[in-house]
Hints:
There is one protein chain. This protein is mostly beta strands. Helices cover 11% and strands 50% of the residues. It starts with a helix and ends with a strand. 30% of the residues are buried.
Amino acid sequence: MKNAKLILIALLLSVFSVSAQEASVSNVLNLRTAKHSGQIVEQNKLVGYFIFYTKEKVDRNNTAYEIQMYDDNYNPSSNFEIVRPKNSILLEMVYNGSVFMLHFYDSKTGYEFVTFDKSGEMKGSKKISKDEISKWDLNKVSMNLQSETENISIYPNGDKGFIRSTFTKYKKIGYEIVAYDNEANEVWSYKSSETSDMIEIVEINDVSANYLTATVTKKKNITTREMSNFMLLINLNDGSKITEISMGDDVSGLRSLLKSFLNESKKNITIVGEYYKPNDDIVKDKSQGLYMQEISLTGEDLGITNYAWKGDIDQFASVTDSDGKKERPFYAFFHDVVISKNGHVFLIGEQFLKQISAGGIAMQVAAGALGGQSNASAFEMLLGDMIVIEFDAKKNLVDFKKVEKKRTNIILPAGMGIYGSTTLGYYIKSMGAFDYSFTSKNKEKDVYDVIYIDANRKEDDKSSKSDLMVGVISIKAGKVTQNRIPINCESKTWWIQPGKPGFISVSEYFRKEKKIDMRLEKLSY
Length: 525
């Protein structure tokens, strides 16, 4: 009888543990490190979560940090502690399905890349002295730290290692793409030419099982607005360049590269972006529409299809807003691409528009009256609706949906008003200022949830406001639906992240209590 009771208690504890779906961490000394949290994804499936936080000061020179891991229901699974010099700042933390890579920066010594497995065993370390780091890389780190924006330079390379993008120490700005194994050993490196008479900057677009795509921007100098864009395709097995394809020219018209993805069903690379008229300035002129281009895995151009704003897309998109007024000419920035099992491709985007800022002008006037200067621009960005563009398996445009959300404004810093849509779109993304948050993907079940924040925090005109309104665009078996979910928080500081299928993770930081509460919120379909 006693054994039966023990078994019953164990079963009850097991049920309670599986359904926990919330966790709390105490003794979190600051928020900055705590936001270095994320998902543990193995074989394309979310199996848990991790959080990295400052735990305590060990002595005058060292600080202890804790890495706590959970299963997909926020039940604690394991944890380990690491001790670092107090001046060592964590810039990035990435998990590749096998190990974590932590990227630290010390203003005196430089970079250190450290890898740990989930048990806390250190697998390897790679140090780069400050003298070896490009000043352009240090400038980027400094800007991210000052603005408290995320430093993004490391990408998981399956469970084999990691890919990192950085600047070279050439006289002119150049780029380097480096591959590391799970022990933080450098496997290969691909660099722009040191003898190039152009400034060359790279932005990694996609890292798949064996291929990497990136946008390479080339300019004569920093101040010029004239630039050329190229799509770089690299073999991840040895770091060799497969091809570098020009994104148009002044004679044929330029193209921007907004997103690329490996189309597994067709065994090729698909890139999407905007195209421009001949001699148009990609920085300041409005694009003519969207394009989709397919490239073979050997670098062969398989063709481009254009979709004009006028004549193609406007057949599906309404030209009036919800009040019946003529819609303003918004631009689009694309955050993600979803390919359903039926072969349909969904581009997930968000509208934005540059406009005169009454607030920015007021700040400039006020600063001038006091004999100073304001860092605010006379322009601001207006964020509009979410958009979902659907193509069938033959690349035919079959639908264009606008999902309404409350419009929000972002005041630009001084000098940004001269830039065009593509540049400003990437700037807003780097600030983390778009309302789009993330896309949860369950490829096995063909279910995708696009999550965004809606500033309209009321469920209806008569309801009271919630602390947070989450918008959900669900793509299930190729069908698109939309919903909004009100969430209430007890703290003033919160953030959301992907959760297990059908859920999102909500984290709250309580500054006075020095703790973080995390929980799963169900997405209602």
